[in-house]
């Protein structure tokens, strides 16, 4: 019986419920298909702390070795640690994680040598086709010479690599609370932060893929509440929250308030431009704050606006030789880290910036947080195209307003802008609004939501 991969293989990765949607025999087929499509002679595999991850990773390794590839297992790791291994060893890689998804989920993030992403248009479709074929007709015969499977520790090398990309030599003593969400940050933070003048207050560092304290998804505000309260209670200088596979990092200031990922993008962009002699291209997606391109230009750089999604960011990074890229979702990409995303490197930049001056974090990021923003607001709709058309019609004939379709619909006025994008997987429209002040942002937000949700509203 052919496996149903329609809900399992996504645009950028493999992700689904274990064992309902996939299991170890299917993971073994994915390993064999990955080697065949990439023509790899050797690969590297890592996994997160989910209960199903070690077995799935081992099965994938068996499938890869059966096709003649030598396999290096690096065991427990964050996703950006897997990218480090892929880059440093110059090998294709597979990371077993479902990132911020609930415990019953698992998945695979795949890359070619040098951490180059594998997505729907860069090999994942071919891998899916082979797995479907083999699940129906049986796996191919093993290679004449099967590959070897060995283990390797990459945590120290990963930490040394990151610390070599940020000058942390002049950090003043800081108190930092880190919420690992029982995810891989609990594994990587102690080694990366070792030797720095930090009073580290760990929260939920115990690796537990059942997530007993809260979901490891800091994009949801409810999962930041514990960290915000702890930062204030400890009188800490800042807080850091990582998602399950620790490739994203969210920042809390000394008041317990969240720092916009756009502000962090602007801060890191300014530092990376300074590190590169005050010149270079920086990528940002179209939902980041308008302060991001402003700060890039002010610091001598060239901003490039792109669609939402890591595949678009990484493609632009490679094509333009960009030094840095940032997204509103707290993914941060670095040229000197194989164009891959690493929240840990962004965290080190924040520590270095804060620790290199005497003021609080709230004062430091004020210069980068210039506008009022709504955050992402989701609306369930029966017909995405119909509601997008209604919004387009409402704004299309207004003086001083421009529309573009780079990713969904972006509407820009004199003192405000908004983007409305359809979800690819759910019947949702996602709205982001930014304006010069809160009153203007609220007025625009409410008008657009009324159109999306088919209510009556007062035009601002």
UniProtKB/TrEMBL annotation:
Domain Alpha-D-phosphohexomutase C-terminal: from-to ranges: 376-450
MF (Gene Ontology): intramolecular phosphotransferase activity; metal ion binding
Domain of life assignment: Bacteria
All residue ranges annotated as the Alpha-D-phosphohexomutase alpha/beta/alpha domain in the record: 7-136, 158-256, 266-371
GO BP terms: carbohydrate metabolic process
Cofactor: Mg(2+)
InterPro entries according to UniProt: A-D-PHexomutase_a/b/a-I, A-D-PHexomutase_a/b/a-I/II/III, A-D-PHexomutase_a/b/a-II, A-D-PHexomutase_a/b/a-III, A-D-PHexomutase_C, A-D-PHexomutase_C_sf, Alpha-D-phosphohexomutase_SF
Pfam families: PGM_PMM_I, PGM_PMM_II, PGM_PMM_III, PGM_PMM_IV
Similarity remark: Belongs to the phosphohexose mutase family.
Protein name as catalogued: Phosphomannomutase/phosphoglucomutase
Keyword Phosphoprotein listed: yes
Alphabetical UniProt keywords: Isomerase, Magnesium, Metal-binding, Phosphoprotein
Organism of provenance: Streptomyces nitrosporeus
């Amino acid at each position: 019986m052919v496996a149903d991969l329609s809900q399992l293989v996504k645009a950028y990765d493999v992700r689904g419920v274990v064992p309902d949607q996939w299991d170890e025999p299917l993971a073994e087929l994915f390993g064999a298909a990955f080697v065949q499509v990439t023509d790899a002679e050797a690969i590297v595999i890592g996994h997160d702390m989910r209960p199903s991850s070690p077995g799935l990773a081992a099965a994938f390794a068996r499938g890869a070795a059966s096709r003649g590839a030598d396999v290096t297992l690096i065991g427990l790791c964050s996703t950006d640690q897997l990218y480090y291994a892929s880059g440093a060893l110059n090998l294709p890689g597979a990371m077993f994680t479902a990132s911020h998804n609930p415990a019953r989920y698992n998945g695979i993030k795949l890359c070619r040598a040098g951490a180059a992403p594998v997505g729907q248009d860069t090999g994942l479709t071919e891998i899916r086709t082979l797995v479907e074929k083999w699940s129906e007709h049986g796996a191919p015969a093993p290679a004449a010479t099967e590959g070897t499977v060995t283990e390797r520790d990459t945590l120290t090398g990963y930490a040394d690599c990151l610390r070599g990309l940020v000058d942390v030599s002049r950090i003043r003593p800081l108190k930092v609370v880190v919420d690992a969400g029982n995810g891989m940050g609990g594994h990587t933070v102690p080694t990366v932060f070792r030797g720095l003048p930090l009073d580290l207050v760990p929260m939920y560092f115990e690796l537990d893929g059942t997530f007993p304290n809260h979901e490891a998804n800091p994009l949801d505000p409810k999962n930041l509440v514990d960290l915000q309260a702890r930062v204030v209670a400890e009188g800490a200088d800042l807080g850091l929250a990582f998602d399950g596979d620790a490739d994203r990092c969210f920042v809390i200031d000394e008041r317990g308030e969240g720092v916009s990922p756009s502000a962090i993008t602007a801060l890191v962009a300014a530092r990376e431009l300074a590190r590169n002699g005050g010149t270079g291209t920086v990528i940002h997606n179209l939902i980041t704050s308008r302060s991001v391109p402003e700060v890039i230009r002010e610091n001598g750089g060239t901003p490039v606006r792109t669609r939402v999604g890591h595949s678009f960011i990484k493609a632009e990074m490679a094509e333009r030789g960009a030094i840095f890229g940032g997204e509103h979702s707290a993914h941060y990409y670095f040229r000197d880290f194989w164009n891959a995303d690493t929240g840990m490197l962004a965290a080190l930049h924040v520590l270095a910036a804060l620790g290199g001056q005497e003021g609080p974090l709230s004062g430091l990021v004020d210069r980068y947080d210039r506008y009022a923003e709504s955050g992402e607001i989701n609306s369930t709709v029966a017909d995405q195209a119909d509601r997008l058309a209604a919004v387009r019609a409402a704004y299309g004939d207004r003086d001083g307003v421009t529309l573009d379709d780079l990713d969904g619909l972006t509407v820009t006025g004199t003192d405000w802008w908004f983007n409305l994008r359809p979800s690819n997987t759910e019947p949702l429209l996602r709205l982001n609004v930014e304006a010069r002040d809160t009153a203007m942002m609220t007025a625009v937000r409410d008008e657009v939501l009324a159109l999306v949700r088919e209510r009556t509203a007062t035009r601002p």
